[in-house]
């Protein structure tokens, strides 16, 4: 069984436990000035990193993350270590994998996840307030940096990769591109979780919505989508509920242990953090749970103890709406469309070609959906190979529908005629 299949099997049976913070654990140990770059500790003090990994494994973590959050050449340049990105990443992967293997059993396998941080630079946000076209980093530079980072982690032996604390989806897409390049070169498949961090308004720093982040990541077929950092466990919940509703794949969360005070101490004790996270578990919002900044092995032990009592989230089927349409159950389809709209969806594709009565199903769905104002917020896209179905639907739409007519060839006389008719019906062809 490959790693992704094994992880999915475990996730179907129980909630998967992640480890907690690495950086704040290292800070608590007061490393000396020469250890200012945490990632370099994989080379200079591997025993220190091993000890933290093992503490989380003893606390019940199924997955531990490498100490490589800043191990891209972009981030390491701050320490004049950019030429050692691959070496550091490989060492981090090897340390985590060795620790995971030490605790792994047939009944409870453990996994090492390679951490790929966001870097401190954005491909989407200008680096110069006076020049909106300026960027501190571009796609090619990010992809090359993530390529060395991921290659080192994989060569070190990690089982999966976490692209985490994503504040710019364009950065994350460059990381995904780099990972896919490695997979193609080696003929392997590496499970990937992508985890976003949100601002106070519930959006990524770039202004992208959580639903937009989800849509941007799904073409890469991630193993899981997640939220981390951002807030304490209590404040993260409403945003997690949105992700859980929007994501067709597994969903994770690893919030901070509250917020830090002026001395850098985080506000939530293990018991308090676990009590907030229990509400995630009761409502079936997660498949994967852990901790971020300020969390310790004690926090993870408390969370793991609670998680044993709850069932994992059941991912929503992306095909549920289409299945209802195909079966001609337009009432169920309308209910599912309402749920999509209430979760923040902006478009709805209506394709009734597989239903018993395509034109009738389209008409009945549209008529019934007109009873619910929330559905007026969705941009309807009518998709069909049958002109009669499209025409039947257009005769029922009160707004401006977009039409995808699959049988007409562009530049043909038929296409031009259909464009005219769609326009006359108040729609627009795409």
Relevant terms:
Pterin-binding_dom, HCY_dom_sf, TIM Barrel, globular, methyltransferase, alpha/beta, cobalamin, 430 residues, 2 domains, 12 strands, four-stranded parallel sheet, methionine synthase activity
Q: What gap, in angstroms, lies between the N and C termini?
A: 43 Å
Number of DSSP helices?
17
Average of pLDDT: 91
Order of helices and strands: HEHHHEHHEHEHEHEHEHEHHHEHEHEHE
Dominant shape: globular
Look at the structure and name the CATH superfamily of the largest domain. Homocysteine-binding-like domain
What is the total tally of β strands? 12
The CATH topology name of the largest domain reads: TIM Barrel
Low-confidence region ranges: none
Helix content: 40-55%
Radius of gyration: 24 Å
Query: What's the main sheet like?
Result: 8 strands, parallel
Give the amount of beta strand, in percent: 5-15%
Number of domains: 2
Query: What structural class results from the helix and strand content?
Result: alpha/beta
Catalytic activity: (6S)-5-methyl-5,6,7,8-tetrahydrofolate + L-homocysteine = (6S)-5,6,7,8-tetrahydrofolate + L-methionine
Binding site for Zn(2+): 229, 292-293
Function: Catalyzes the transfer of a methyl group from methyl-cobalamin to homocysteine, yielding enzyme-bound cob(I)alamin and methionine. Subsequently, remethylates the cofactor using methyltetrahydrofolate.
Pathway: Amino-acid biosynthesis; L-methionine biosynthesis via de novo pathway; L-methionine from L-homocysteine (MetH route): step 1/1
